[in-house]
Specification:
The complex is a heterodimer of chains A (about 300) and B (about 375).
Chain A: H1 8-21, H2 39-52, E1 54-56, H3 73-80, E2 85-91, E3 104-110, E4 120-124, E5 127-135, H4 136-152, E6 157-162, H5 170-182, E7 189-194, H6 195-204, E8 211-214, H7 216-230, E9 237-241, E10 246-250, H8 268-280, H9 284-298
Parallel strand pairs in A: 1-10, 3-8, 6-7, 6-8
Antiparallel strand pairs in A: 2-3, 2-9, 4-5, 9-10
Chain B: H1 20-27, E1 46-53, H2 57-70, E2 75-79, H3 91-104, E3 106-111, H4 125-132, E4 137-143, E5 156-162, E6 172-176, E7 179-187, H5 188-204, E8 209-214, H6 222-234, E9 241-246, H7 247-256, E10 263-266, H8 268-282, E11 289-293, E12 298-302, H9 315-322, H10 326-342, H11 356-366
Parallel strand pairs in B: 1-2, 1-3, 3-12, 5-10, 8-9, 8-10
Antiparallel strand pairs in B: 4-5, 4-11, 6-7, 11-12
Helix pairs in contact in B: 2-11, 5-6, 7-8, 9-10, 10-11
Pfam families (chain A): Iso_dh (PF00180)
GO cellular component, one term (chain A): mitochondrion
Keywords (chain A): Mitochondrion, Transit peptide, Tricarboxylic acid cycle
């Protein structure tokens, strides 16, 4: 368990409390990593996750005023453990009033490359180049994950989100990989949509989307838009899956500094993330009972 | 030179801002072209370059011409057909368009569709035109239309997007087989320029707050530089509140509570996404016009460079204001607003059954000539 900053620690307390009452056979090893923690602390956390295989995490704040060689702790954890798929499930929850209804979207986001490569340099004074990396291997991997998930969850269509009209080589490669993988799953309809149109469609008619797959940055944006559509950052859980490890957190990864320690943060997202973790650990009965309790309290 | 409206030259950062007065002129009541125009045009008519483009572009341009004709608006259109999809695009055509722009200073553009296939050139014609004219600022005024109910009403925000660099630099290469690197370029000069534009716009339009949108927690150098430039510029405008927000949070807030935003400024890609998201909030691409500015030119177009099914010719209204034709632009604008408020004639994208031509005819009928 990595509580993180802001509202993280208090939300973790809620999870522990609920698990205690439900007699869940899970023992938490707490590892503290602050925003200014030295690299050694982060490595320690990563080793702990390797040991245990699964983690529940709050968001570690990234101070952008620190020099650029100080990398985002969250990103470091994701890339070191190769947690290549970020999955969030945006569902209209009963009892939560929103402008849109009947939303049920699974968003699969590539979690390790793209715009988050942290490769930047100032080539000439006043000119900064940031590299966005897209590779065929990782694009195919995430596409396979998305289609596999769609098949396992009996979903009917997968939409790839991209901007290949502008980034012809980069997003073009991503799109091509998705198309190649789609051919191996003939029962699933494959569509592609440009990211700007996607965001417009999401706010006008989100019910048309089923499973979505996309590179890192668009995933970040679409995750947040969808979370907003179903009721906000306090309601949607997220999971980061790799081959060997899985880390669960809230979908929108907020630190919530402004509401920390005031007993107003919504624990729903973290509790549902904990349920996803229990499912992953095959403690299905505990997962469903806690999930039902959470949804009943929302009603 | 009479700068009108109290604009003054400001020397900041040792020059480069001498063209600032032109912005004031462009937004103010000065016609961009002298009335004694060339090519034997009638005195007092303004020339506007028109690029119908692809998709619904030509129909829309036709609608604009019809409405202007009905309203006796003194504008002549210099049409150019530049299309990548229909293979009528070439370097010479692009140059001719630029020459035409040098004369007219104002243009109306449909959408120049960018084909997805990689035909050997990474920069689309759309982008190249923008770069040649140095149209660095894209302004989208997202306003709820009275009479058209959407999930969010009474929305009024302005999105200012840097349009010449960022992710749209078209610099990509395959360094190793199966690995593509795309370069996103952020420069201090262009970031300062767009920030200054945003604050000037806010000052001119009486806006209270400017929010810079970025992802500096991940792209520390790139977006960090953008953010820093915005902060520096903000210090020179003490009356305007300055705020920053990360792009993902911004998108979520736009969906949940868009009323908190006033003017937003951001680099290229985020601008593209936020423009479209905000357009979706008030009813789609068909009801939101966009404007692009450089130090010398102004271009008016639809927001989402896609192909909406039916739309409102809001664009000529803005072009009219620019050309100093305030009377005419108000007339057309009022007619359009009246038709929408009336609610009887609605195109498909607004939930109705009318065709584009029906709508145009309704606007013409509503013109009080």
């Amino acid at each position: 368990m990595i509580p993180g900053d802001g509202i993280g620690p208090e939300l973790m307390l809620h999870v522990k409390e609920v698990f205690r009452h439900a007699c869940v056979p899970v023992d938490f090893e707490e590892v503290r990593v602050g925003s200014e923690a030295p690299e050694a602390d982060v490595q320690n956390a990563i080793t702990a996750i390797r040991r245990n295989g699964v983690a529940l995490k709050g968001n570690i704040e990234t101070n952008h005023n620190l020099p650029p060689n100080h990398k985002s702790r969250n990103n470091l954890i994701r890339t070191s453990l190769d947690l290549y798929a970020n999955v969030i499930h945006c569902q209209s929850l009963p009892g939560v009033e929103t402008r849109h209804r009947d939303i049920d979207i699974l968003i699969v986001r590539e979690n390790t490359e793209g715009e988050y490569s942290s490769l930047e340099h100032e080539s000439v004074a006043g000119v900064v180049e940031s590299l966005k990396i897209i590779t065929a291997g990782r694009s195919r991997r995430i596409a396979h994950y998305a289609f596999g998930l769609a098949r396992a969850a009996a979903r009917r269509s997968v939409t790839a989100v991209h901007k290949a009209n502008i980034m012809k080589l980069g997003d073009g490669l991503f799109l091509q990989c998705c198309q190649e993988v789609a051919a191996e799953y003939p029962e699933i309809t494959f569509r592609s949509m440009i990211v700007d149109n996607t965001t417009m469609q999401l706010v006008s008619r989100p019910q048309q989307f089923d499973v979505m797959v996309m590179p890192n940055l668009y995933g970040n944006i679409v995750n947040n838009v969808c979370a907003g559509l179903v009721g906000g950052p306090g309601l949607v859980p997220g999971a980061n899956y790799g081959h060997d490890y899985a880390v669960f957190e809230t979908a929108t990864r907020n630190t919530g500094k402004s509401i920390a320690n005031r007993n107003i943060a919504n624990p729903t997202a973290t509790l549902l993330a904990a349920c996803m973790m229990l499912d992953h650990l095959r403690l299905h009965s505990h997962a469903s009972s806690i999930r039902q309790a959470v949804l009943a309290s929302l009603d | 030179m009479d700068l009108g409206r109290g604009w003054r030259k400001k020397w900041i950062w040792g020059g480069g801002w001498r063209k600032k007065w032109i912005w004031g002129g462009v937004w103010g009541s000065h016609p961009p072209v002298s009335p004694q125009s060339h090519n034997g045009k009638a005195e007092g008519t303004f020339q506007v370059t028109m690029l119908p483009g692809d998709g619904v572009g030509p129909e829309l341009m036709h609608a604009v011409k019809e409405v202007f004709k009905a309203g006796n608006v003194p504008v002549t259109f210099d049409e150019h057909h530049l299309s990548e999809v229909q293979n009528t695009a070439s370097e010479e055509k692009l140059d001719r368009v630029v020459d035409s722009m040098k004369e007219s200073k104002v243009a109306l553009i449909g959408k120049i569709h960018t084909p997805m296939e990689y035909k050997g050139d990474l920069a689309s014609y759309d982008m190249r035109l923008r770069r040649k004219l140095d149209l660095f600022a894209n302004v989208v005024h997202v306003k709820s239309l009275p009479g058209y109910q959407t999930r969010h009403n009474n929305l009024d925000l302005v999105i200012i997007r840097e349009q010449t660099e960022g992710e749209y630099s078209s610099l990509e290469h395959e360094s190793v087989k199966g690995v593509i690197e795309c370069l996103k370029i952020i420069t201090r000069a262009k970031s300062q320029r767009i920030a200054k534009f945003a604050f000037d716009y806010a000052t001119k339009k009486g806006r209270a707050k400017v929010t810079a949108v970025h992802k500096a927690n991940i792209m520390k150098l790139g977006d960090g530089l953008f953010l820093q430039c915005c902060k520096e510029v903000a210090e020179l405008y003490p009356k305007i509140k300055f705020d920053t927000m990360i792009i993902d949070n911004c998108c979520m807030q736009l969906v949940q509570n868009p009323y908190q935003f006033d003017v937003l400024v951001m680099p290229n890609l985020y601008g593209n996404i936020v423009d479209n998201l905000a357009a979706g909030l008030v009813g789609g691409a068909g009801v939101v016009p966009g404007e692009s500015y450089s130090a010398e030119y102004a271009v008016f177009e639809l927001v989402r460079r896609g192909s909406p099914r039916g739309t409102v010719p809001n664009l000529p209204v803005r072009a009219g204001i620019l050309g100093g034709l305030e009377y005419h632009s108000n007339m057309v604008s009022d007619a359009v607003k009246k038709v929408i408020k009336g609610g009887k004639v609605r195109t498909a994208d607004m939930g109705g059954y009318s065709t584009s031509m029906d709508f145009t005819q309704a606007v013409i009928d509503a013109l009080e000539v």
